[in-house]
Amino acid sequence: MRTGCVVLVMIYHATHMSRVTHPELSPRTLVFPYQVGASMLLVISAYFAAATIGRGSLRRYWWKRMARLLPPFVGAVVLIWLVLRFLRPPSWVEPNGRDIVGHLLMLWNWKPSVYAFLDGSHWTVPLQLLGFTFAAVLYATKLGHGNKIVWVLWTAVLLPLAQWHIRISGAPETYRMLVDGFGAHRWHLFAAGVAIWMVSTGRLSRGHFALLLGGCMFAQAMHNYIRLPDGQLDCDWGSSLGMWLGMLLLTLVACGPDWKLPPALARGVTWFAGISYGVFLSHQTIGYVLLHYLDTNGVPPLVQTLAFLATGTAVGWALTRTVERPAHDFLMRFYDRTVADQRG
Description:
The chain is built from 14 helices and 2 strands. The protein has helices at residues 2-21, 37-52, 58-87, 97-104, 124-139, 148-162, 164-168, 173-181, 187-200, 206-223, 237-255, 263-282, 284-296, 301-343; strands spanning 225-227, 233-235. It has 344 residues and is mainly alpha-helical. The N and C termini lie far apart (43 Å).
């Protein structure tokens, strides 16, 4: 599922968002205009957070997640900034030191009008950091156990929904900053992932799960509403339906038997899943630079898309091998050594 979602993200950026961001590019031969992959990755992250949080020390659980997420993010940001600084097309804006500092601090979720993205894919990173941190804090209390967690999940779904009319009607900037900064309008994605894990382990009845997942699906549809310049409301139903299908598919995967793929395909899927975070972090902006140069040299759009996918995979693999895994191993050894010294 993670492999499929990252591939969908790459195709969405290569065929749709590339021309939204850079309309000077030639029309794409094939277009996938649905924002599904990144949102589903948050659902999957929540599922695995719920599945693993009870294993071992809670502090080690949190440290392990930070050690996995932050070093490759920093590495990807530095790489993307260097590519934009020295390899960008002549017509593109040159990033400066303020841009890289603002991006590393993830200020774009709070003030997007002031701090621009160096890479738009990174909007999920602060939400994952907040999600894992909140999960650890919640698990340390009574609210993180038993039936009480169900009330937390319902609150995460219903509270933002109750404020939907404020968000869609042009909320005050302070309100918008807090809601977007804490990702309140996407809390239902985390609730869906935890609910799927709970029903798969028998911790939630199927009837209650159906109601809760239905609430998450409704929240996703409401999230995809926008107000047009003429004041009318419009919904991206294609993305909503894609997310609904993704949630149902994850439920089937979690509750059903393990898939038995042909050995060669299984190895390929497993390998890509292992580098998927690096691919996700590094493919978009670097890929857009590549698309620009290929397009100006007359390369067919379909070949451009294939080159985008191949380059994103190669750069993601390199980021995983040189930054993500070594940094994670070093930070986990540091943590274990520090804990052992304290106990000694």
